[in-house]
Prior knowledge:
By secondary structure, chain A is mainly α. Chain A folds into 2 domains: about 15-75, Arc Repressor Mutant, subunit A (Orthogonal Bundle), CATH 1.10.10; about 85-125. Chain A is built from 5 helices and 2 strands, in the order H-H-H-E-E-H-H. In chain A, strands 1-2 form a two-stranded antiparallel ribbon. Chain A is elongated. The two termini of chain A are about 30 Å apart. The model of chain A has no long low-confidence stretch (mean pLDDT about 90). Chain B folds into 2 domains: about 5-215, P-loop containing nucleotide triphosphate hydrolases (Rossmann fold, 3-Layer(aba) Sandwich), CATH 3.40.50; about 220-285. In chain B, helix 3 packs antiparallel against helix 4, helix 4 (about 110-120) runs antiparallel to helix 5 (about 130-145) and helix 5 (about 130-145) runs parallel beside helix 6 (about 160-180). The termini of chain B are far apart. Residues about 285-298 of chain B have low confidence and may be disordered.
Amino acid sequence: xxxxxxxxxxxxxxxxxxxxxxxxxxxxxxxxxxxxxxxxxxxxxxxxxxxxxxxxxxxxxxxxxxxxxxxxxxxxxxxxxxxxxxxxxxxxxxxxxxxxxxxxxxxxxxxxxxxxxxxxxxxxxxxxxx
Amino acid sequence: xxxxxxxxxxxxxxxxxxxxxxxxxxxxxxxxxxxxxxxxxxxxxxxxxxxxxxxxxxxxxxxxxxxxxxxxxxxxxxxxxxxxxxxxxxxxxxxxxxxxxxxxxxxxxxxxxxxxxxxxxxxxxxxxxxxxxxxxxxxxxxxxxxxxxxxxxxxxxxxxxxxxxxxxxxxxxxxxxxxxxxxxxxxxxxxxxxxxxxxxxxxxxxxxxxxxxxxxxxxxxxxxxxxxxxxxxxxxxxxxxxxxxxxxxxxxxxxxxxxxxxxxxxxxxxxxxxxxxxxxxxxxxxxxxxxxxxxxxx
Lengths: 130, 298
């Protein structure tokens, strides 16, 4: 059984924090196929959060196809997240590293780079956060 | 979906002063509702009217479709925990449960005993010698043992230390998860509300300044900062809630259902605290329509 931790200063919506922690637990093998997620009541008793927040997180995971709710029994892991294949990850890492080097060569400091990255990240990933 | 609480032009007058005036509000079913507002906004009066402990001077209020305290059946559906979670100091914990079973037709003795056991309270102990947190838990147990459809709590955690507060809210949220009870609670502690509430009502000077589902409210408000400009020049879809300006910069809290596309703004999401503070300060300045004329810097 996993235990959730909340970061109240992160600015990330509580339900998303739960979703991300399940993702991470699946990647790290702390949750495996067939495992049952903590019930809403268990999560609520531990974190003192609204049960609807837990339901929302579990619905999101269900939508992603990672878990399935079985009425009266609980919510179970039905699929592991398909991590992007290592070759693709390596390609993007190399591209980003190259970009960062050229940015530094052009005289940009870490703050400049971070500002650029954040702006670009927001404009790419802003949709779907709401 | 039906309304848990519906108030229309609701008013309550004490002698000459109005504690609540022209309050119109609808609270839908299935939520944990946080009621916030400055002292004197009328929160306690509104909650007591909803619980049927006060009668309105003007206007109407219905709770779960009926007039509050319309009869025994209506009373049995609504639980109320008053400010400072009062209990009877001379009575023991067990006496309180006995009292609960005598006074409430739908009393769930099993639930009450279970909660007392989980909390580790000694049934023989007098309530007067319990800690603040334990007293609050006892008051909550009595309210939950009644198995209400709606539980109203007036500043339930204000006087508790942080650990007792967390434990109280854990118990409350467990009850929501298990029994689906509707909750309306008033609090000044926005961090607590952020955890437990999925519906927010901001009440200032009897008026509802903001009401809605927390997720939707957070998604429809943004903090904008950028070069100074006249808020009057914003798109009509962006409603300015608060604004502050230096000679070079403008900082705004805006409400809009559309994305903010203007690249001159840095757009940040809002927290629940930003929202609450924004609407409270807006109400205090009380001039939403009166905008200072600004030279547009471009």
